[in-house]
From TrEMBL:
Entry protein name: ZSWIM4-8 C-terminal domain-containing protein
Lineage, broadest ranks: Eukaryota, Metazoa, Chordata, Craniata, Vertebrata
PANTHER family linked to this entry: ZINC FINGER SWIM DOMAIN CONTAINING PROTEIN 4, 5, 6, ZINC FINGER SWIM DOMAIN-CONTAINING PROTEIN 5
Keyword terms of this UniProt record: Metal-binding, Zinc, Zinc-finger
Superkingdom: Eukaryota
Length: 1113
């Protein structure tokens, strides 16, 4: 065997033909037979002899000892022994090959594109050939079959291994990835599945030792001849150095042998391409959580956990590489400079990173020097300015991991806590405690019966062990045990923690019973829980739940075949060592989840911490919903629900809670749905108590509590801001909706739920949503409506109307229309009620234009199938409403009131008189013109004239407002007056002259009045002369004078600031003015004089005056 060891690259294998591979399962136990070589064995037989003592010893040595140590220990190692050690040194577990060739842990049912799956396919299709094992070096060729776009390619593969770990790989495909390529997988699995078909040779140095000089020379010359283009320069260089007596190569005893295995000083770990780990993490981080990069990084974290579970030292090594790249992320400094928080996806990745480091340093079997190295590195990262803080860049009082104590000091004096702080604190924890050692080492560790009297810190009254520790820290120990491949020990400690929580819960209940009267009188409490377990950075409840349910999970073979994700299936597994045998790990998992979710805890500070509480709560509820409840689980559920209701200040569902306590709505919704089929009274009691949201109680105004602020809390500044308030209120609404749906048809329960909604929900938008939900459930398409639930929907709708009456809400019109629809479904009495009490529900405009109009529509009458008395009752209420609204807001309601009162003469006259009374004070000309046109349309021209006259008194039309929107109304009013007769025209013209100063509008009115005779409307009792009116006589004379005066004034106004580009337009204006002047008897003289005056006054505008002379002389 070679005495020195160097590092030479593996040489390409020789091409040998092998028999085609036979098909095998994807995973199978490592070969237990002795394999090739000396010794008995029947590898192809169903029955095998026990392994020989040589094989047993060789397996142990091959896994634990470097081969150099074997050589040093024994002066001469027989060749059969060497062969067995070399044989057993190759990895024996396919799961390890899978771990290093794909992100996913499962090896069956995965996508075909994964290297492991592709490697299996290459192996099973006979693509692996020329397999040769020389010492600790395996080589072979793997042929990639031809595809539509690629020809067939053969790759040379070389693998070095030591102590059942692959230490280096080389493949001709040039794969650059974290994981092994499919060709390395295929060759590795060939060696594991078909060891008897692999030619095995001792390390090449042993073979060379057996040759004489001539054989060695022949070997070298044949090797150079076969590969002269590649090795000739190297061979000559080595020959020159060997022939030189002073060369470095002659100073070393022996020669390197790449097939002789590792030296004693070499690290015994699997091959991991560190550069590729760095590159891929850097690439994923640069994508900012998009394009699936967040999923890929989470897969890398899962790979670290998988390595830890296999007790692979590369787990910590890989996490270190990942952390280095996370700390090198350029966005960290950018976020710090800008003072902005990192994205939510990125924040979750940092949380997982910190939790993994806690897991790493809590390895129960790590060496002290390893832990010291990790602590040094963690401190280095934590001291960097850019290191993210644990609470998401918001300062808060977070307990120390080792004792859960909070220092109530000023925020400036608080220590800076980074995402690595908990891991650094965990470095102070150890596993040497004798009580802890006994808990995790035995299922039957109990106190003696004679020691169970009185209280004990180590055992409960039943003698079962307790573990009194800060709960998140204790759960971190459980996670560490589970993650490092000690599931049984993790279960034992988890059960001890749950027994401790149970004992604490009962003791807290006893304390509360003595203080209950005092607390109920005060009406509130201060929470004693220093930090919440739900939303905690270490996720203690999720950790315990996962540990306990993992052992109860039933593996579904169909999922392995199809690859489709299915919800987990659980079965009860008795707790090992339980004295009465009645405990189940599944029931314990449910119990601890309920304990954690029901813990009363103060809402943490900061957006991220609050969001994390909500997200973690929903994750736990999702897991709980996957559990199919049987009698034992329902019994556990009922027991814990009762304890939570009676739990006082330690329970979020207790009778009194802190004002800043995290609401229980999401949790209560799960409990309600789960308990309802088994204990409806308990389900309703629990859900109704959970409806409260005390943070809003003392500050909620009587008006709307809708959310234009999008979830920013309205609590006073002395309390932390509730950034997730909008989400919490929506969860409160979901709980209420669930109860309403379940209570359908039960009047008493519906009334109780309705009272809780009206008392506890302060957002009009959410109450409106509940009303809509109740309406939808109460009116199924194929069945008659549920009148009790309809009434609930109506009451909720009425509350929404009252809440939003005096505040702005962009959905107000929708809400009003919906309420009328709901009242219509309820019936006539509901409609009459909202019409009679409109002033508490609607604005006058809404009451007339939406409510009364809809109620009086033909569709509503048909929908209710009303008889004549009922229609009259409804119409009378609508008319009364219309008159009341017109009195209160005539500007906006008068027209609607007139429309609604059309069929009742007295009501119509009353509405008209309201309009007349309001015309002189509050109504605008546009409103009056609109009502006047309505009156003309309804056949009341004289009333229309009166209203139009009143409108004219409010109007003022300047000389330059020739596009004013009221011009059409003025023309209509004058046309109406003209059609009524000379008297009406004479009455309207003075108003027009006073209000209208625009020359073109006045001339248009004048022209229209001279075209036809007045009085064509044919008012009964009046005689129409049929003669055209003269402009020289009243009333048109006054209008003509006003028009001429307006033209003169407008001309002077326009000439003051006229520009040359408007000269042509001005000449046309004068032409229209001349037409008006000529309507007077001496109009041509007046116009000529007017032109002369212009020439004198504006003689400086020579070009313009020249144009005036050309046109008008």
């Amino acid at each position: 065997m070679a005495e020195g060891r160097g590092e030479l690259p593996p040489q390409p294998p020789l091409h040998l033909s092998l028999p085609p591979a036979s098909k095998r399962p994807c995973l199978r136990p490592a070969p237990r037979g002795p394999g090739p070589g000396p010794g008995p064995g029947f590898p192809n037989s169903r029955f095998r002899c026990p392994e020989s003592l040589l094989d047993c010893a060789a397996k142990a040595v091959a896994e634990k000892w470097a081969f150099e140590r074997v050589e040093e220990r024994f002066e001469r190692i027989p060749e059969p022994v060497q062969r067995r050690i070399v044989y057993w040194s190759f990895p024996r577990n396919e799961r390890e090959i899978c771990m290093y060739s794909s992100f996913q842990c499962r090896v069956a049912g995965e996508e075909d594109g994964l290297p492991f799956r592709r490697g299996i396919r290459l192996l099973e299709t006979g693509c692996v050939e020329n397999v040769l094992q020389v010492g600790f070096h395996l080589s072979g060729t793997v042929t990639e079959p031809a595809s539509q776009s690629e020809p067939e390619v053969t790759h040379k593969v070389a693998i070095s291994f030591d102590r059942c770990k692959i230490t280096s790989v080389t493949c001709g495909c040039g794969n650059r990835d974290i994981f092994y390529c499919a060709h390395v997988v295929a060759l590795s699995l060939y060696r594991i599945r078909k060891p008897e078909q692999v030619k095995l040779r001792l390390p090449i140095s042993e073979t060379l030792f057996q040759m004489n000089r001539d054989q060695l020379q022949k070997l070298v010359q044949y090797l150079i001849t076969a590969h002269h283009t590649e090795v000739l320069p190297t061979a000559q260089k080595l020959a020159d150095e060997i022939l030189s007596s002073n060369s470095e190569i002659n100073q070393v005893h022996g020669a390197p042998d790449p097939t002789a295995g590792a030296s004693i000083d070499d690290d015994n770990c699997w091959h991991l391409d560190e550069e590729q780990v760095r590159e891929q993490v850097k690439q994923f981080l640069s994508q900012g959580g998009y394009y699936g990069s967040g999923k890929q990084l989470n897969s890398m974290f899962a790979k670290v956990r998988e390595m830890l579970r296999m007790r692979d030292s590369n787990g910590a090594r890989m996490l270190t590489l990942i952390t280095e790249q996370f700390m090198a992320d350029p966005r960290l400094s950018l976020w710090r400079q800008q003072g902005t928080g990192m994205t939510d996806k990125c924040r979750q990745l940092w949380d997982e990173l910190g939790a993994l480091w806690v897991c790493i340093v809590l390895n129960p079997h790590c060496k002290s020097e390893e832990k010291s190295g990790w602590l040094k590195q963690l401190k280095k990262w934590g001291d960097m300015d850019i290191c993210p803080l644990e609470d998401g860049n918001y300062g808060s009082e977070l307990p120390n991991i080792t004792n859960g104590w909070v220092s109530r000091t000023d925020s400036l004096a608080r220590p800076r806590r980074t995402v690595f702080t908990r891991a650094m604190e965990a470095c102070d924890l150890h596993w040497q405690d004798s009580h802890l050692q006994r808990i995790i080492s035995s299922d039957y560790y109990m106190s003696p019966a004679y020691q169970r009297e009185g209280e004990s810190l180590l055992f409960n009254p039943q003698g079962l062990p307790l573990w009194l520790d800060h709960v998140p820290t204790a759960c971190a120990r459980v996670d560490a045990l589970r993650s490092h491949g000690y599931p049984r020990e993790a279960l034992r400690l988890g059960v001890a923690i749950i027994n401790t929580l149970r004992l604490q819960q009962h003791r807290q209940l006893d304390i509360y019973k003595h203080q209950k009267k005092e607390l109920l009188q005060r009406g509130m409490t201060s929470t004693t829980n220093l930090e919440g377990w739900v939303g905690h950075p270490l996720d203690p409840i999720g950790c315990l739940f996962g540990t306990l349910t993992e052992t109860c999970r039933v593996e579904d073979d169909s999922t392995m075949d199809t690859g489709d994700p299915k919800p987990p299936v659980y079965h009860h597994v008795p707790v090992w060592g339980c004295p009465d045998g009645g405990e189940s790990y599944l029931a314990l998992a449910l119990e601890v989840a309920l304990m954690g979710m029901g813990q009363q805890r103060v809402m943490p500070e900061g957006l991220y911490a609050q969001d994390k509480v909500c997200r973690n709560e929903e994750q736990i509820v999702t897991k709980l919903q996957e559990m199919e409840l049987d009698d034992l689980l329902v019994q556990t559920l009922r027991k814990q629900a009762i304890l939570l209701l009676e739990g006082g200040p330690f329970s979020g569902l207790g009778e009194v809670i802190h004002r800043e306590s995290v609401p229980m709505h999401t949790f209560a919704k799960y409990l309600f749905s789960a308990l309802l089929p088994h204990d409806a009274d308990l389900a309703y009691k629990l859900a109704l108590r959970a409806m409260r949201l005390p943070v809003l109680e003392s500050t909620a105004p009587s008006g709307d509590m809708g959310h234009p602020h999008h979830g920013i809390s309205i609590v006073p500044s002395r309390y932390p801001r509730w950034f997730t308030l909008g989400h919490l209120e929506s969860q409160q609404c979901e709980l209420a909706s669930t109860m309403l749906t379940a209570a359908k048809g039960d009047m008493l329960r519906l009334r109780t739920v309705l009272d809780a909604i009206q008392k506890n929900i302060h957002s009009s938008s959410l109450i409106f949503k509940l009303a809509q939900d109740a309406f939808k459930i109460a009116t199924p398409a194929d069945n008659p409506p549920d009148i009790t639930l309809l009434n609930v929907a109506l009451e909720l709708g009425l509350q929404v109307m009252r809440m939003t009456l005096s505040t702005l809400n962009w959905r107000r019109r929708e809400m009003v229309r919906w309420l009328v629809t709901c009242a219509t479904e309820v019936g006539l009495r509901a409609l009459v009620s909202i019409l009679q009490s409109w002033y508490t529900l609607f604005t006058p405009t809404e009451a007339t234009s939406i409510v009364a109009a809809t109620v009086m529509s033909h569709n509503t009458i048909l929908r209710l199938s009303l008889d004549y008395p009922q229609r009259e009752e409804l119409a009378s209420c609508a008319r009364t409403l219309a008159l009341q609204c017109a009195m209160k807001d005539p500007q906006n309601c008068a027209l609607s009131a007139l429309t609604l009162c059309e069929k009742d003469h007295i009501a119509f006259e009353t509405a008209y008189q309201i309009v007349i009374d309001a015309a002189s004070t509050g109504m605008t000309y546009s409103q009056l013109f609109t009502i006047a046109r309505y009156m003309e349309h309804r056949g009341y021209p004289l009333r229309a004239f009166k209203l139009a006259s009143l409108a004219m008194t409010h109007l003022n039309l300047a000389y330059n407002q020739d596009t004013h929107p009221a011009i059409n109304d003025v023309l209509w009013a004058c046309a109406l007056s003209h059609s009524l007769g000379k008297n009406e025209l004479a009455a309207i013209i003075p108003l027009v002259v006073k209000s209208v100063h625009c020359a073109t509008v006045l001339s248009d009115i004048l022209r229209r009045c001279t075209m036809t005779a007045p009085g064509l409307a044919g008012i009964p009792g009046r005689r129409n002369s049929g003669k055209l009116m003269s402009t020289d006589k009243a009333p048109l004379r006054q209008l003509l004078d006003a028009t001429i005066s307006a033209y003169i004034n407008t001309t002077h106004s326009r000439l003051t600031h006229i520009s040359p580009r408007h000269y042509g337009e001005f000449i046309e204006f004068l032409s229209k003015a001349r037409e008006t002047f000529l309507l007077a008897q001496d109009g041509h003289i007046q116009f000529a004089q007017f032109i002369e005056n212009l020439k004198q006054i504006y003689k400086g505008k020579k070009k313009l005056m020249m144009l005036v002379r050309e046109r008008f002389g």
